[in-house]
Design goal:
cytoplasm, about 20% strand, about 35% helix, Elongation Factor Tu (Ef-tu), domain 3, binds guanosine-5'-triphosphate, single chain, GTPase activity, nucleotide-binding, 6-stranded antiparallel beta barrel, TIF_IF2_dom3_sf
């Protein structure tokens, strides 16, 4: 049973909100502050139990004979009062309605009685009300919609609205053939139905059977999110508004309290007397009577009436004029005994159109609650005689969200003052006025409260509007062959980087800190006239996200398995990523040069992981390679190219580009540099791009392999280093080219806002929940006081690094200590970080970045700790050791000094000499040097030679000039900073 709001529950019980809140308190259900608070199933039971215990004298909602005193008045008086919302009804209770359900299923021929009785959706609509008269038409609606409802569940993206039985028969019937197959297909798709996910699927062409499904699922979710308030768009509803209005204009309103609720002749249905029957949410009638036909006694001047806003909109949209509707209704009313009752046309009842009719928003259900669109007239509430001069409540109006109090009142006919009063009664203390914007939730509550029926139309976000064009599939004729994207995946140290280096003819592996890959790399190369985009991923377990990202952008996965190791944990993980991405896998059985290697064990491992090698009769190509001897490299390349040829990868280059951000960083001179893999369209300098919460105009694009090559435009399957974003986009975010910088900004900002809200909401909820849990267990203060928190401020070179560090730190689990990341940002350590560290007593962890001079001296001054790392697992090892109080004294890095490179000299045979000035401390011959460019550590090397003038020197002091040659690094440049340090065995303190 879903949670039920206080106000709804109070309404059922015939109590006011305050009374119920008091009852809750007494029943031991604490912490329900306002009418908007929700009660869980067990809490509802607790309240009911409390009420049934005789402690209070009030009506009960249970069907069973209750120990409470009987209602003071007749059943007619009580019935409307105890109209039961779904939240208050236990599933078993709904079984009392199974008789009705059987009738329905017989008539419709689809729904089983159990569907209605058992389904939560069905239950949601069934009322406990002991109502004698049940409309056959309504029953049909229940039966049909009850069957359709469960099939809607897989639509994950749809905001809140659970399917409900109150779905009008027409809508349910129409949408069923369109939706069910789509959702049934979409459900098993392994990839989330994201925009580019869908496009990628399409790009992968006809070889993938799932492409169509995913595309459809995407379209569905787009539709759903565009309207928010609907789960499905009836196929026939081209113009969502017109049919709805026509229906309502032409069909008589029903007065459910009137005699027509029976068989149509005004008499109650025979044989079903006093049976609990389902209640259905159908067209609400105006709350007050329309003026009677009696002629005015004296001639009055016709008032000058301004049409309400929604009526004006209707006319502008080409709908019927309000007066037309009015006259139509009048004509129809003549045939009726009473307003809203058509006593002549019984069939009309069965086919009664819902006021939600064909609208795409038609099945919007207010927050999953039962609609109260039906008008109830409590005894005494109906006016006995005389004319009602109050403005009739409107129904069938469209309410565009977000809306103000004024707009709500105009749309619903509820006076603004009454609306404001109700908002206040609901516990809103913000003192709203007529122009105040209401939250969607509040609108929903008010609609429920005033029992008005409105069609709520969620605002279509700019993002949906702008990015929807990326959902459109390219015409086959526009697709041209594109290079394959090949990702190297596998366990740490199995030789991915070495193999790729050997294939491309570069040497990346020797410059990697700690000998492990910590960043995703991507290059496009040309081999034997074929272009291929290669992506290298880290193998260390911390980089799961990067591996997943690599697998998600790839066409072909090359699984690198060291022949001496076989399938290891990250190999298995990589296999899963590749399988999830549904891409072909080519295995490179590497390190075959190692002596005494028999590849059989690795082959068995592969077979055990459902990758049966082709030489064993399976379908997986296994190529034996060695990055050292270059054995098997040609074979590997050929296998990749043949696989690519088989799959015919295509894309449309003549469209706005889209792609994926693989990595991003902040550089001091270039700003945000983002490694992007273009997957479709052509990306050009000057294009406006949006990527996650970042946006900008493409300023420059550089080749990823040869950064000096500037590119003006790049087509599909091309990785580039791109500048122009305002902030570093999140790795893995999708990039889209849009036509307007304003739109890009708006999309990025709204995403940022939503992200922020989510973060804030998440953290508050967790802490409150945790607190509540602890309070419950009565152990809040003592054990909490014992927990030591280590605050961290993370600074790293890329977002990917932050992601990986966070993941690693998340593994540190200790009962008495915990790590809290106060802030995690890309870029060098700044003064602001030091200030924050000072205020929050945090330690600053700088991964592959350094503090700027101001930050460094401030940190020294205030005693803030800046710990620097270049290998990811050292951070966790260090912190773990720190937290566990077992810091080893050895390997303490002692900073020695810093030198600026003023000039460089290239000497053949020797290499590049850096002419430096020592700016801080001193440089000693045995020191190691960090090479820093743009606040980022680009390498760490020992000193090969240190000279003053032409003489070798052991130490050069601050202010002096010297020549430094680094061992194994010749790419030193003017402006680089060299930091000297020594590793000493000294005691560490935190
Ligand atoms: N004998 C031998 N050694 C290899 C071969 N390929 C790589 N190695 C060595 O294995 C070690 C790890 O190689 P990498 O290329 O860094 O491995 P990796 O899989 O890229 O590692 P990560 O990116 O950190 O996951 C290095 O010392 C390489 O020299 C090979 O084919 N034969």
């Amino acid at each position: 049973m879903p949670a039920v709001r206080i106000y709804a529950f109070a309404k059922e019980l015939g109590l006011d909100n305050k009374q119920l809140l008091e009852l809750c308190e007494k029943a031991g259900v604490k912490g329900k502050g306002s009418a908007l608070a929700s009660l869980e199933e067990d809490e509802v039971s607790a309240v009911k139990a409390y009420m049934n215990s005789g402690a209070v004298e009030t009506a009960t909602v249970d069907d069973e004979p209750a120990p409470l005193r009987p209602p003071a008045k007749s059943i007619d008086t009580r019935v409307p009062e105890i109209k039961t919302a779904p939240a208050t009804r236990a599933p078993e209770e709904s079984k009392t309605d199974s008789v009705d359900a059987e009738v329905e299923s017989t008539e419709v021929g689809e729904a089983e009685p159990v569907d209605v009785a058992d389904s939560g959706q069905a239950e949601a609509e069934v009322s406990v009300e002991a109502d004698v008269e049940v409309e056959v038409a309504a029953e049909e609606e229940v039966a049909v919609a009850a069957e359709a409802a469960p099939e809607e569940e897989p639509v994950a993206e749809v905001k809140e609205v659970p399917a409900k039985v109150e779905e009008p028969a027409e809508v349910a019937a129409e949408s069923k053939p369109e939706e069910v197959p789509v959702e049934a297909k979409a459900a098993p798709a392994k990839k989330p139905a994201s925009k580019v996910g869908g496009l990628l699927e399409r790009l992968r062409g006809a070889t993938k059977k799932t492409a169509a499904k995913t595309t459809i699922a995407n379209t569905e979710s787009r539709e759903a999110s565009a309207t928010t308030s609907t789960r499905k768009r009836p196929a026939a509803a081209k113009d969502p508004l017109a049919p709805r209005r026509d229906n309502n204009a032409n069909k008589p309103l029903r007065n459910l309290d009137g005699p027509s609720r029976g068989d149509g002749d005004g008499s109650p249905k025979k044989g079903v007397k006093k049976k609990s029957g389902p209640k259905f949410n159908i067209a609400a009638m105006p709350e007050v009577k329309q003026p009677t036909a009696s002629a005015p006694t004296e001639k009055v001047q016709k008032p000058d009436i301004a049409l309400p806003q929604d009526a004006r909109r209707t006319i502008q949209a080409g709908g019927t004029a309000p007066l037309e509707d009015f006259t139509k209704d009048k004509r129809k009313d003549k045939k009726k005994g009473r307003l809203g009752e058509d006593t002549t046309d019984d069939s009309a009842k069965k086919k009664r159109p819902s006021r939600f009719g064909n609208s795409p928003l038609g099945n919007r259900r207010m927050g999953g609650r039962p609609s109260r669109m039906r008008s109830y007239h409590r005894p005494g509430s109906r006016k006995k005689s005389g004319k009602n001069t109050a403005a009739p409540r409107k129904d069938s109006v469209v309410l565009q969200l977000p809306c103000t109090v004024r707009e709500f009142s105009e749309a619903t006919g509820v006076p603004a003052i009454k609306t404001l009063l109700t908002i206040k009664q609901m516990g809103d203390e913000s003192n709203p006025n007529i122009n105040s914007h209401m939250s969607d939730e509040m609108v929903e509550v008010l609609v429920d409260h005033f029992e008005v029926s409105v069609e709520i139309r969620a605002a279509v976000s700019l993002e949906d509007e702008v990015l929807s064009e990326f959902e459109i599939e390219d015409a086959e004729a526009d697709l041209l062959p594109r290079p394959p994207i090949v990702t190297f995946l596998g366990h740490v140290d199995h030789g991915k980087t070495s193999l790729l280096d050997a294939l491309i003819g570069i040497d990346v592996v020797s410059g990697e800190a700690g000998g492990i890959t910590q960043h995703i790399r991507a290059y496009q190369i040309e081999k034997d006239g074929h272009k291929i985009a290669f992506v290298d991923t880290p193998g260390h377990e911390a980089f799961t996200e990067m591996r997943a990202r690599g697998a998600n952008v790839t066409d072909i996965a090359v699984l690198v398995v060291a022949a001496d190791d076989g399938v290891m944990p990250q190999t298995a993980e990589a296999i899963n990523h590749a399988k999830a991405a549904e891409v072909p896998i080519v295995v490179a059985l590497n390190k075959c040069d190692l002596p005494g290697i028999t590849p059989d064990k690795a082959m068995q491992d592969l077979a055990a992981n459902e990758l049966l090698p082709s030489e064993w009769g399976g379908e997986t190509e296994v190529v034996k390679t060695s990055a050292i001897t270059k054995e098997g490299l040609d074979d590997l390349l050929e296998t990749i190219l043949v696989t690519a040829e088989l799959h015919e990868y295509k894309a449309n280059p003549d469209r706005p580009a889209y792609g994926t951000c693989l990595e991003s960083e902040q550089q001091s001179d270039r700003g945000v540099v983002c490694k992007v893999l273009v997957q479709g369209g052509t990306l050009k300098i000057g294009d406006v791009v949006v990527c996650g919460t970042s946006f900008g105009r493409v300023k420059s694009m550089n080749d990823t392999l040869k950064p000096s090559i500037r590119l003006e435009e790049v087509g599909p399957s091309t990785p580039v280093n791109l500048t122009g974003f305002n902030t570093p986009p999140g790795a893995g975010e999708k990039l889209y080219v849009v036509d307007d910088i304003g739109k890009a900004r708006e999309i990025a900002e709204s995403r940022g806002h939503a992200e922020h809200e989510q973060n804030v909401a998440g953290s508050v909820m967790v802490s409150l929940e945790e607190m509540a849990r602890r309070l419950e267990m009565g152990r809040l203060a003592p054990s909490d006081a014992e927990i030591v928190t280590l605050n961290l401020i993370l600074r790293a070179d890329t977002k990917g690094s932050i992601e990986a560090i966070k993941k690693e730190l998340g593994k540190i689990d200790h009962p008495e200590v915990r790590i809290k990341i106060v802030q995690a940002l890309v870029g060098g350590v700044t003064v602001a970080d030091v200030r924050l560290a000072q205020a929050s007593e945090a330690v600053i962890c700088a991964f592959n970045v350094v503090p700027d001079e101001n930050a460094r001296s401030l940190a020294e001054e205030v005693g803030a700790q800046v710990r620097r790392y270049d290998v990811i697992y050292k951070i966790t090892d260090d912190l773990k050791a720190t937290l566990e109080g077992r810091l080893k004294p050895e390997e303490q890095i002692v900073e020695q000094g810093m030198a600026m490179v003023l000039r460089t000299f290239s000497i053949s045979k020797t290499g590049t000499i850096a002419g430096c000035r020592v700016m801080r401390g001193s440089i000693q011959r045995e020191c190691r040097m960090r090479v820093i460019r743009d606040s980022t550590i680009i390498g760490d090397y020992p000193i090969e030679s240190l000279k003053r003038e032409k003489d070798d020197s052991k130490e050069v002091q601050r202010g002096m000039e010297c020549g430094i040659k680094l061992d194994g690094f010749n790419d030193i440049k003017e402006g680089d900073t060299l930091e000297a340090y020594r590793i000493e065995e000294v005691a560490r303190t935190l």
